[in-house]
What we know:
- There is one protein chain.
- This protein is α/β, with parallel strands linked by helices.
- Helices cover 43% and strands 16% of the residues.
- Strands 2-1-5-4-3-6-7-8-9 form a nine-stranded mixed β-sheet, sandwiched between helices.
- The longest helix has 28 residues, at 136-163.
- The site of nicotinamide-adenine-dinucleotide has 29 residues, from helix 2.
- This is LOW QUALITY PROTEIN: dehydrogenase/reductase SDR family member 2, mitochondrial-like.
Amino acid sequence: MLRAVAWVQRGLFHPCAGLSAALKSSSGIDQKGILANRVAMVTGSTSGIGFAIAWRLAQDGAHMVVSSWKPQNVDRAVAALQGEGLSVTGTVCHVGKAEDWEWLVATALEHCGGVDFLVCNAGVNPLVGSTLGTSKQVWDKILNVNVKAPALLLSQLLPHMEKRGRGAVILVSSISAYIPHVELGAYNISKTALLGLMRTLAMELAPKPILMNCLVPGIIKTDFSKILHQNEAFWNLSKESQKVQRIGQPEDCAGLVSFLCSPDASYITGESIVVAGFSLRL
Ligand SMILES: NC(=O)c1ccc[n+]([C@@H]2O[C@H](COP(=O)([O-])OP(=O)(O)OC[C@H]3O[C@@H](n4cnc5c(N)ncnc54)[C@H](O)[C@@H]3O)[C@@H](O)[C@H]2O)c1
């Protein structure tokens, strides 16, 4: 199986040994798996949930566009996927910066031929504290990265996605949209807004071949959630409502995203699917 990697930097294009092959593999040659011949873009995909998703989609045959705001992390993620013989293009993108997501879209179009699946995973929470004590600066950061960036990135990408036929967008929300974590107010609100964004776009995009769904993770063991999963009192309390008696792993989220991108999910849109070891309906 031909697999390839390219590492693309803004203003400085590094055609490493695999680039021409990356173009070939993104156009479908030698790719195998349920997502073969498709291109998937995951934001914030150099660690945690985003990386697990990128890994899984690549294992399932997609050519991956991985990105994050730190070049060294992109480098590491690309090398890890490449080490498994998977097909990947990596570039730096801070999703809160318009010039970065414009570059991300241009890179995917030029070097991968387009995008079929967009997973808006990058998210921030710079604040632990009172909601009404949140500064304008913090509100701006949280809403820019967590809510506006997915909408604006998709608005750039959508015309190109439609042209390629069936596509899927998955927004990564959070269980805190349903059960707000105390002291994470602005973050909770941003993740609730993502549910609204998904539902609205599912309606607006219904005539197009693009499916819109939300992944809603519970507590998943990553650097991002350290503040929660390393807090013994919090975890003991969580276990009481948690049905599956273990903390979630990033990989627990990845299979669902692969399914939502697969032809088996072609009649599913407008859904928010909780991956939390419990159900809000129980
Ligand atoms: N871990 C959890 O318990 C949990 C629960 C619910 C929702 N989530 C959501 O899942 C998503 C991923 O979180 P994670 O736990 O994997 O965190 P993580 O810290 O392990 O990974 C976050 C990734 O996003 C990247 N990133 C951060 N800010 C960025 C920016 N401005 N532009 C581009 N990339 C950026 C980081 O470099 C990293 O690759 C987030 O949206 C988070 O809100 C996480």
